[in-house]
Amino acid sequence: MREIVLVNCAYDRSDDSVFTSPRTCERITGGRLARDRGTIYPHVDGVSTEHSCQAVCLRVLRAERRKSVSGETVLITGASRGIGRCLALEFAKHGASTIILWGRDEEKLSSVKKEVEESGKARCHFYRCDVGDREQVYRTIQKVQEDVGAITILVNNAGVVHGGALLETKDDNIEDTFRVNTLSHFWTTKSVLPSMLANGRGHVVGIASTLGLFPLPGVSDYVASKFSVVGFYESLAAELREQGHRDVSVTCMCPGHTTTDMFKDLTTQPFSLTPQQVAEQTIEAVKTNQRRVILPRVMHLTWILNSWLPGSWMRNVLYVTGAMKDMENFCAKR
Ligand SMILES: NC(=O)C1=CN([C@@H]2O[C@H](COP(=O)(O)OP(=O)(O)OC[C@H]3O[C@@H](n4cnc5c(N)ncnc54)[C@H](OP(=O)(O)O)[C@@H]3O)[C@@H](O)[C@H]2O)C=CC1
Ligand SMILES: CC1=C(/C=C/C(C)=C/C=C/C(C)=C/C=O)C(C)(C)CCC1
Predict the structure, then answer these.
(1) Per its UniProt entry, what is the enzyme's top EC class, as one word (predicted)?
(2) Alpha-carbon gap, residue 278 to 221, rounded angstroms
(3) pLDDT tens-digit profile of 297-331?
(4) What is the spatial distance between Cα 179 and Cα 188, in angstroms, rounded to a whole number?
(5) Which residue from 180, 210, 304, 325 has its CB within 8 A of the most atoms of ligand 2, so it is best to mutate?
(6) Which ligand neighbours the alpha carbon of 181 most closely?
(7) Which of its termini does the chain have fewer beta carbons within 10 Å around, N or C?
(8) Are both 283 and 250 inside the same structural domain?
(9) Do 139 and 261 share a domain, yes or no?
(10) Measured from the CB, is residue 209 less than 6 Å from ligand 2?
(11) Which pLDDT tens digit goes with each residue over 44-87?
């Protein structure tokens, strides 16, 4: 691990990154750190200020912190299709030794297992598990640990959307949304965390959504479930840090609209992502220990403006871009 002293930096509290100033870093530190000018260091430890620092030295442990996923045992929920399937293939491509797929459709899981095994050297197993059922999650995790051993990377990806205006949404659907999109993250994480802490090695990843940061109309249960899950990862990251467990990391991914089955009726979205892009960025986030990732990056702006500007701003943008019409169609089909 390399230790660098950075001078004249800005610290971004949202993702723990430090930006070095392009001009003054060189002047103050001399030639030694010239190559660090204008660099962004993600996920920096040991920063005690939240503001721009003028000529303040920060001790930064970095670069060699970048980890590899090679040899890891990765459990992915909701891996039968969409983002989960791409995550399985991508982890295999990046050298994970064992991939464990969870879902409810055994036929589809079996076909993803085949794809993973054909794509490289990873071993792959699949288990039928409804993540919305707490007892099933506990039973299945135990079976996985007996069959395969300790899970070192957990990706909570499974999700559902029912959608529709609140008064037209069935109570059962609201409960299902919370069971799958939110509560399941508690059950799976509680099950794998003890072995991660005991082994001093692990990473818990949650696939949340930009809808966990700002709302859209017509999907209030989905939005609320994602806001909750973003809160879960924020709090868990803080808790592990406070307890001194620096070898177990937490990442919360917040992708915007992605071209899978889930929101396939949102047809005219600008800035849509492919599931492959989300999978690639997730692996990059794991390797660089990022706590929260918002995709595409332009959505940072939406999130900030939504907090600062009146609600009518967002409404107008959604009308002008056609996103509101799309949401209406989406709801009408539910
Ligand atoms: N699509 C989008 O625009 C975005 C999606 N996301 C999030 O990404 C994640 C993946 O979504 P995406 O790939 O698009 O969706 P898909 O609908 O394509 O896939 C959802 C996956 O979740 C699984 N799943 C659903 N319910 C359960 C359950 N009760 N138990 C176990 N598995 C279950 C499905 O498996 P099964 O075969 O069992 O149904 C499927 O594998 C979700 O959490 C979603 O909220 C985030 C941002 C944008
Ligand atoms: C807010 C906003 C937009 C729409 C975002 C949408 C429609 C996001 C959908 C996200 C989904 C479906 C997430 C699922 O989890 C635009 C038009 C890009 C312009 C900038 C402001």
Answers:
(1) oxidoreductase
(2) 23
(3) 999 988 888 888 887 888 898 888 888 888 888 88
(4) 12
(5) 210
(6) 1
(7) N
(8) yes
(9) yes
(10) yes
(11) 544 433 333 433 444 454 444 689 999 999 999 999 999 999 99
